[in-house]
Amino acid sequence: MNRGTAAQTIARRFSELRGEMDRYVIGHDTVKTGLLLGLLAREHIYIEGPPGMAKTMLAEIVSAASNLKFYLYQFHRDTRLAELVGDVVIERERSNKDSGTEIIVQSIRKGGVLTAELCVLDDISRSPGEALNVLLRVLNERQFQTEKIPLLAAIATSNPTADDYYNEPLDPANLDRFTIQIRSAGLIQENKWDQVREVIDLYSNSQFSEEVRPEAILDRGVFDQAYELMHEVQVPEIVKRGLVDLLSRLVNQFKLDPTNSLITDRSFLVKTLKILKAKTLLEGRMQVVPDDLSVLTFLTAFRVPEEIHRNMPALVRETVQRVAE
Fold first, then answer.
1. What contacts 154, CB < 8 A, 6 or more positions away?
2. In angstroms, rounded to a whole number, what is the distance separating the alpha carbons of residues 89 and 78?
3. CB 181 within 8 A of CB 170
């Protein structure tokens, strides 16, 4: 199978996964696309929005339909690290057979995040700092102590920071661990009345069940094939110029610096290229085009001021026109 045919096959398989999300959840296209990009690129995903926005439901659908080893945890103010990584085991061991001396040894019987290929971390902003800091280090390094873990991606959800939700904001450095960042809003708040009507029709159907039981759509083999193929996607010079031009405008025209944004080399060079390639592959192509720079909207939700993030689609269009001249 040549690369072009392989790319189209991958695009079709992930389109089926998207279809499974559409089957149960109307609208929320940005969240759905972000989930697919993150999964294919093996990057972590952070979704923030009020309760009732289908954040956790979409994550659970993706998890079940992906046929990966799955772990879901809902954070609370008393979350302990052991709840996330497995059970703490305390055993007595002989330190010297002749003397009969014993020592107490503490170890971890691995579970939770350490054994999952995909995990959903619900209400992550409610986590106490000690557990959260260790967890984020594990997610970032894909290992616990000296051992690698099988994790492909983590999907974290959170309510907006407000007293009503009893949570605290993640600091920018912690948020930066999540490459894909999404602000989720409801269909009503976004005035998407056609989709509102679709939801009403769906739940008016006496045959509809809220119990989500999607059949497995993908498997680990498909994810491995997609990830390997993604690294062969070509990035032409015009796209590279476009990325540099856009980043230059953000820094120089809009005066973004470390005091008001988090535009790092890691996120906006290394990670952006991975997401660009993932978008390209999701569309069945093997070469990035300038319009693919629109994926920057998935990296800027919490890394730049909100008004600039809202203007990203227009900034990308202007950049594409500039580099094409």
1. 44, 45, 113, 118, 119, 120, 121, 139, 178
2. 20
3. no
For residues 118 and 66, the answer to whether their CB atoms sit within 8 Å is yes
Residues of the chain with pLDDT under 50: 163, 165
CATH number of the domain enclosing 41: 3.40.50.300
Q: What confidence tens digit (pLDDT) does each residue in 33-56 have?
A: 999 999 999 999 999 988 877 888
Instruction: Produce one character per residue of 293-324: b if its CB has 16 or more CB atoms within 10 Å, e if not.
Output: bebbbbbbbbbbeeebbebbeebbeebbeebe
* Alpha-carbon 256 to chain mean position: 24
Q: Domain for residue 263, yes or no?
A: no
State in Å, rounded, how far the first CA of the chain is from the last one.
37
Q: Do the domain assignments include residue 166?
A: yes
- Domains in the chain, number: 1
Range of the domain at 176: 3-232
Give yes or no for a contact between 80 and 134, defined as CB atoms under 8 angstroms apart: no
42, 154 Cβ separation under 8 angstroms: no
